[in-house]
């Protein structure tokens, strides 16, 4: 499987990827691009029904998290809608906080 940087599209050496999580059906690899200096995450799905590439599908996305930060936040539960609203309201002037 060939992996290209999602920002500059240059081919990245797979040996530079750091495994964040490995599984039989899905894995998550963290990359640092030496050309444009961005971090990205490659999500690899192993599903024989996909057929092409032996059932492997790769999805990459940009991230501003380094490897340690990805490992730190991976196991945390997602924020609830109420928590997002609470954070948003904390930035509003105190007169507009009561909703
Ligand atoms: Zn790049």
How many helices? The count is 2
Going across the biggest sheet, name each strand in turn: 3-4-5-6
What number of domains? Answer: 1
- SS class: alpha+beta
- Low-pLDDT windows of residues: none
The tally of beta strands, per DSSP, is 6
Helical content stands at 10-25%
Percent in strands: 25-35%
Which terms summarize this structure?
99 residues; alpha+beta; 4-stranded antiparallel sheet; two-stranded antiparallel ribbon; elongated
Task: State the gist of this model.
This protein has 99 residues and is α+β, with helices and mostly antiparallel strands. It has helices at 67-74, 81-90; strands at 3-4, 11-12, 18-21, 26-32, 39-46, 56-63.
How would you describe the overall organization of this protein?
There is one protein chain. The chain has 99 residues and is an alpha+beta fold. It has one domain (2-96). It is 18% helix and 31% strand. It is built from 2 helices and 6 strands. It has helices at 67-74, 81-90; strands at 3-4, 11-12, 18-21, 26-32, 39-46, 56-63. The strands form 2 sheets. It has a 4-stranded antiparallel β-sheet with strand order 3-4-5-6, with helices on one face. Strands 1-2 form a two-stranded antiparallel sheet. The longest helix is centred in the C-terminal third of the chain and has 10 residues, at 81-90. The protein is elongated and about 60 Å long. The chain starts with a strand and ends in a 9-residue tail after the last helix. The model has no long low-confidence stretch (mean pLDDT 87). The site of zinc ion (ZN) has 8 residues, from loops.
């Amino acid at each position: 499987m060939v992996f290209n940087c999602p920002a500059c599209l240059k081919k990245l050496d797979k040996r530079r990827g750091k495994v964040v999580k490995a599984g039989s059906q899905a894995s998550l690899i963290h990359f640092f691009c030496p050309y444009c200096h961005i971090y990205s995450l490659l999500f690899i799905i192993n599903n024989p029904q996909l057929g092409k590439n032996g059932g492997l599908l790769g999805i990459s996305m940009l991230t501003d998290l380094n490897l340690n930060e990805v490992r730190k936040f991976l196991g945390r539960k997602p924020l609830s809608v109420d928590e997002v609203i609470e954070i948003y309201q904390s930035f509003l002037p105190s007169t507009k906080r009561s909703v």
